[in-house]
Specification:
Largest sheet: 8 strands, antiparallel, barrel
Shape: globular
Oligomer: single chain
Number of helices: 6
Radius of gyration: 17 Å
Number of strands: 10
Helix content: 10-25%
Strand order of the largest sheet: 1-6-5-4-3-7-8-9
Strand content: 35-45%
Length: 227
């Protein structure tokens, strides 16, 4: 199922003010293990032609992203994900994989799959064999998330966005990260078909900019063209 996804870049101060407003009304996501939220660490994959990066740079309305994601620098839960974007709507195919399977994918080796196109492992294997899909960049940030049942609303505040092109260090606690010069904080709003007006009112802040923001693009471009 495709969901609406809108992204807004804003200053760290504005992000703090918005979070304070939302936090008084909405409940925190149940997956959070502290009042500060949790850390998200992903390694993104692309093919020999950087197709997914080019699609993002060109602003193509239909595109995909391949990634492995962990939380709080822990391998207790390792998610294999393929994310689809159609205009401002997104869908995701996700499954939990083992540490050994993660290592295989990071080294360019295929893992067992169900032969179903709904299985992200199948999609990864095909892309690795046919297009040379390989890990490209690590993207990390801190996230605080809030949810609201009607409309399946999820609002996330992401800050301290950082990256590393040393993909072999994925998941290690001593990664040396680089920090982008701008757009280091982002607000994401996701919902199905219905978005309550009272939440939209809470999010009103004149300094926010709705942009076709991509953490993957932001972090990849740090290592390209002399950046």
């Amino acid at each position: 199922m495709y969901r609406v996804e809108d992204k807004y870049v804003c200053s760290s101060i504005d992000l703090f003010l918005l979070q304070a407003k939302i936090g008084t009304i909405l409940k925190s996501d149940s997956n959070q293990n502290s009042e500060d939220g949790y850390s998200v660490i992903s390694v993104y994959f692309d093919d020999l032609y950087d197709t997914h990066l080019c699609d993002t740079i060109d602003g193509n309305s239909v595109r995909e992203k391949y990634r492995i994601r962990i939380y709080n620098n822990s391998f207790d839960v390792i998610k294999l994900e393929v994310k689809y974007k159609r205009y401002n709507r997104v869908a995701k195919k996700s499954k939990t994989i083992t540490f050994e399977q993660m290592q295989s994918l990071l080294m360019g080796r295929q893992i067992p799959d169900s032969a179903s196109m709904d299985d992200p492992a199948t999609l990864f294997n095909i892309a690795m064999e046919k297009r040379g899909l390989r890990p490209k960049v690590i993207v990390a940030y801190e996230r605080k998330a809030y949810v609201f049942g009607p409309g399946n609303v999820r609002i996330t505040f992401d800050r301290n966005i950082r990256s590393s092109d040393c993909v072999g260090t994925f998941g290690k606690a001593d990664i040396i990260y680089d920090v982008p010069r701008e757009y280091n904080s982002v607000l994401e709003v996701k919902y199905d078909e219905f978005f309550p007006n009272f939440i939209a009112g809470l999010l009103e802040l004149g300094n926010m900019q709705q942009l076709p923001y991509s953490k993957y693009r932001l972090c990849r471009e740090m290592y390209m063209g002399g950046e």
